[in-house]
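Entry for the shared binder. Reason: the reviewer on the internal report wants the predicted structure included alongside the sequence.
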Amino acid sequence: MDKTPTHAASKLPDSAGGQAGDPPTSVLVGEVAESARQAAEDLASRARHAAEEQLNGAKQKVADSIGRVADALRATGDQLHSREAEAVGGYVDQTVERLDAASGYLQSRSLSEMLTDVEGLARRQPALFLAGGFLLGLIGGRFFKSTSSPRSSGAQDA
């Protein structure tokens, strides 16, 4: 008498799907995998769309803020011209023109177009790009440092 144990699983065919007429397990696994892939793509698409909407909103706020600063400087420049401070008024006018151009650029370009422009600048003038990134980092660091909440009186610097 053979003493080799028999397992129930060894009696099933390789592509057993349960009862007769059921699809093979490999087909079911493939369908589940495809469904999961489609769900992941849908979720990623929704997340990308939500992020683009938030970035577009922020971009519009920045453009509006730049426009308001340009308007305030324009009024200042007009006052300087009326007081015959032409040299300073000329500098203010140039600044207003550049701010208007920056605001218009932000309003007229999509995020992908702006990214393409930045990539082009980085390729054409890498030193300028790196210097600009460094300056933005310094400005951002100062901004976040100035807006952070004050330390509690118990925390002392070493």
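Summary line for the report: The chain has two domains: 24-108, 111-146.
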